[in-house]
From TrEMBL:
Pfam family, one: Phosphorylase
Cofactor: pyridoxal 5'-phosphate
Protein name in the entry: Alpha-1,4 glucan phosphorylase
Entry similarity comment: Belongs to the glycogen phosphorylase family.
Gene3D superfamilies (UniProt xref): Glycogen Phosphorylase B
EC number: 2.4.1.1
Swiss-Prot/TrEMBL catalytic activity: [(1->4)-alpha-D-glucosyl](n) + phosphate = [(1->4)-alpha-D-glucosyl](n-1) + alpha-D-glucose 1-phosphate
UniProtKB keywords: Carbohydrate metabolism, Glycosyltransferase, Pyridoxal phosphate, Transferase
Length: 801
């Protein structure tokens, strides 16, 4: 949009006056942020309204992306960028004597997700708006987001994330669009005059679902889509009925806090309530909106697509069946045909413990009508498939089995598409986790490799790099990230590579300042910044990275005269509060950091910085400063990974196993520009089949590795007597579930190679450039375009290939 600086300043000062009844000099950065937020809302208001009007007038097919997590990050800067106002506002504020960086840092970062899954949903919202797709998000407005992480004596402590304390400028509460979600009670079938039966629910526990809408602003295209987040409240009838305190609490609890578990299903009733709550409210509001403009339900499948982001929203399937049959008088057959055409499902993991199942008794008690429907889906599935596939396969794959409701199976059976998130992951779904269902529905399976919002992760997070790229290839890459590949022409342009290095050093200085301020550690900007940022999980193997640090530490102690480039090992990782082993690894890293950072014999040659409270905002600070991207999960375990893509786009080289999308990154950037190592997924499966992995053999065969492991229990690292023993035992006594010891040697070899290659900065920056140039392939815009073409069947803006 068009806006002069003078106009902006006038608007801003007026806003401050209206909101706070005081002078600018008397306001805080938070006040200024809130005023700016209101202004941006106003500038974007007509786009948002007109986007909705246009979709209605054109009767565009709507996509609804259901996700129990969204991690949008701070929105001020990205909204300004997408509206084309960033420079005007920044300069205007500077002219008013204000600090734009401080103002944007005052915005709370909504932690409505755990990690990759939630951030992916947010990247896709950004891309849908930017591609002009009629895309809507549907999720939960958690009162408290993911806990804030602090360290006390090296241990993780969780504090509540009261992100709504000062309200949320971006949301609109729309109580006029609220609906009732019903739990419990009992169901009976009432005979109808036409001889059919109608399900009647009685004595239900009713919850009022109130939507809060947040605008998702498209990039330079006047489109603003909606992310709808639901909040659970007392129904209006509570005003004149008595609701016990227990019942009030039960309602309050539904959207009170995000479950802090990543890739692990706990099977708790409250989680099931959350899942049904936002699935039901979302489907009700879709059908209500649809009903306003369409006569029959027959058109439904041409006008809406519902996407199920992992299994958490799977109840949209039986819920849509319920609404079509109980409220819109459809037959089972019609309702089922519509439902399966509308639904599509993405799987995000092959890890068994993450596959959701619910005890049938719990499910039945909480959702009696839905249970009837799921049981009928199960019955019909068995009847239809047993003659073709036999009883055994059908027993293994039916929605109900072993006393459980099996959500992934229900999702596959009730959708027309199921996709994995990287080629290897999709293959493993077909061969392993969903092998039997792949026999039944081979045509449903497809791959959609993940992608990232280049706008946020490069244009916003790394402005120096974005500007440097503009100076070489112009700015069309900002709309068409694939254009980045033209940078390849400069891989041997020494002057450009120097500039690239200068940008990296500048970003490292910004991160170094933060590390100094928060952790008190001094780090050198000419050191290798070796970065691992992701949730703490045994399968992600932060432990392997720890072993490298111990190796480097011992090497300096043994041979102080040997010269190697300085290293800074940077971690960011939250552990689920109940994940004991992950918390022990956190303690180990912090104890090791204490040892290394304070050893005068080490000096500034080796530093370890575990930055607390990793999240989207810290990612924006850390990623642009990285030289090495640690992507070292046990092959086959990481479905895709997305930090690998963000780090690549910012010129870090990958130190990576052949897992998830690492494989595709290595192929895109070229093997010579990455550091691959370790067992292949096939080799890992080979060990499983033969059952012959012997971790102790690696320990006994390699004196260096043995010495490193022994430091866990011999007092070398002070303060970890329990944790050190626990971790040591996990490797030797319990045989190293994730093959850390098997991959140690090849990992270290690549780490040595990195130290060697880093010395030649021209070569090194050439590799960095190759990574940046190849990163466009992983833009979320392209990923979302593929979902639109292949799964949702909706049009989108053209993207250059
Ligand atoms: N992932 Br399941 C999560 O972040 N949370 C989950 O509950 C599950 C998966 C991640 C995968 O671990 C990661 O490999 C992937 O890149 C990401 O989802 C997005 O697909």
């Amino acid at each position: 949009m068009k806006l002069t600086r003078a106009q902006f300043k006038e608007d801003f000062l007026a806003e401050i006056k209206t909101l706070y009844a005081t002078d600018l000099s008397d306001t805080s950065a938070l006040n200024q942020f809130i005023a700016l937020g209101h202004l941006v809302r106003r500038y974007d208001g007509s786009n948002w309204k007109q986007t909705g009007d246009r979709y209605r007038q054109h009767d565009d097919k709507q996509v609804y992306y259901f996700s129990i997590e969204f991690l949008p990050g701070r929105l001020l800067k990205s909204n300004l960028l997408n509206l084309g106002l960033l420079d005007t506002v920044r300069q205007g504020l500077t002219e008013l004597g204000l600090d734009f960086a401080a103002i944007s840092a005052a915005e709370p970062d909504p932690g409505l997700g755990n990690g990759g899954l939630g951030r992916l949903a947010a990247c896709y919202m950004d891309s849908m708006a930017s591609l002009g797709i009629a895309g809507n998000g549907n999720g939960i407005r958690y009162r408290y987001g993911l806990f804030k992480q602090v360290f006390m004596d090296g241990y993780q402590v969780e504090l509540p994330d009261d992100w709504l304390r000062n309200g949320n400028v971006w949301e609109i509460r729309r109580e006029n669009k609220a609906c009732l979600v019903r739990f419990g009670g009992n169901v009976w079938m009432q005979p109808q005059p036409d001889g059919s039966l109608k399900a009647i629910s009685e004595n239900t526990d009713d919850v009022w679902a109130v939507p809060y809408d947040v605008g998702m602003v498209g990039y330079h295209n006047d489109v603003t889509n909606t992310l709808r987040l639901w909040s659970a409240e007392l129904p209006p009838s509570a005003d004149n009925t008595t609701f016990s305190q227990a019942r009030r609490d039960r309602i309050d609890d539904i959207t009170k806090v995000l479950y802090p578990d990543d890739s692990n299903s706990e099977g708790q009733a409250l989680r099931l309530r959350q899942e049904y709550f936002f699935s039901s409210a979302g489907v009700q509001s879709i059908i209500r909106h649809f009903g306003l403009h369409h006569q029959g339900v027959k058109e439904l499948a041409n006008k809406i697509a519902i996407h199920i982001n992992d299994t958490h929203p799977t109840l949209v399937i039986p819920e849509m069946m319920r609404l079509l049959m109980d409220e819109h008088h459809c037959s089972w057959e019609v309702a089922w045909a519509l439902t399966t055409q509308v639904m599509s499902y993405t799987n995000h993991t092959i890890m068994q413990e993450a596959l959701e199942t619910w005890p049938i008794e719990m499910f039945k008690g909480l959702l009696p009508r839905l249970y009837q429907i799921v049981a009928e889906i199960d019955r019909r599935y068995r009847v239809a498939k047993t003659p073709i596939f036999g009883e055994e396969l059908v027993n293994r794959t039916a929605p109900l089995g072993n006393g459980q409701v099996r959500m992934a199976f229900l999702a596959v059976i009730g959708s027309h598409s199921v996709n994995g998130v990287a080629p290897l992951h999709t293959e493993l779904l077909k061969e392993d986790v969903l092998r039997d269902l792949y026999q039944v529905y081979p045509e449903r399976f497809n791959n959609k490799t993940n992608g990232i919002a280049t706008r946020r992760w490069v244009q916003l997070a790394n402005e120096p790099l974005a500007n440097l790229i503009d100076s070489k290839i112009g700015s069309t890459w900002r709309q068409q990230p694939n254009e980045l590949k033209t940078l390849t022409a400069y891989q041997h342009d020494a002057k450009f590579l120097k500039q690239l290095m200068a940008v990296k050093v500048q970003n490292k200085a910004a991160l170094a300042a933060y590390i100094k301020q928060t952790l008190g550690i001094d780090i050198r900007t000419d050191a290798i910044f070796d970065v691992q940022i992701k949730r703490l999980h045994a399968y992600k193997r932060q432990l392997l990275h720890v072993f490298e640090i111990i190796r480097e530490y011992l090497a300096i102690k043994d041979q102080p005269e040997a010269v190697e480039p300085a290293r800074v090992h940077i971690f960011g990782a939250k552990a689920a509060p109940s994940y004991h082993y992950a918390k022990s690894i956190i303690k180990l890293i912090n104890a090791l950091a204490d040892l290394v950072n304070h050893d005068p014999a080490i000096g500034d040659r080796l530093k370890v910085a575990f930055i607390p409270n990793y999240g989207v905002s810290l990612g924006e600070l850390i990623i642009p400063a990285a030289d090495v991207s640690e992507q070292i999960s046990t092959a086959s375990k990481e479905a895709s990974g997305t930090s690998n893509m963000k780090l690549m786009a910012n010129g870090a080289v990958s130190l990576a196993t052949l897992d998830g999308a690492n494989i595709d990154i290595i192929e895109a950037a070229g093997e010579a520009n990455e550091y691959a190592f370790g067992l292949t997924a096939k080799a890992v499966y080979g060990y499983y089949q033969r059952g012959d992995y012997q971790a102790a053999d690696f320990y006994n065969a390699d004196p260096e590795l043995k010495r490193i492991l022994d430091t866990l229990i011999d007092g070398t690292i002070p303060g970890i007597s329990t944790e050190g023993r626990e971790i040591y035992d996990s490797l030797l006594k319990y045989n190293d579930e994730f093959f850390v010891l098997a991959d140690y040697e090849s990992y270290v070899q690549q780490q040595r190679q990195i130290a060697h290659d880093y010395e030649d900065q021209t070569q090194w920056q050439g590799k960095a450039l190759a990574n940046i140039a190849a990163s466009g392939v992983f833009s979320a815009d392209l990923a979302v375009a593929r979902y639109s073409d292949d799964i949702w069947q909706v049009p989108h803006a053209k993207l250059g290939q």
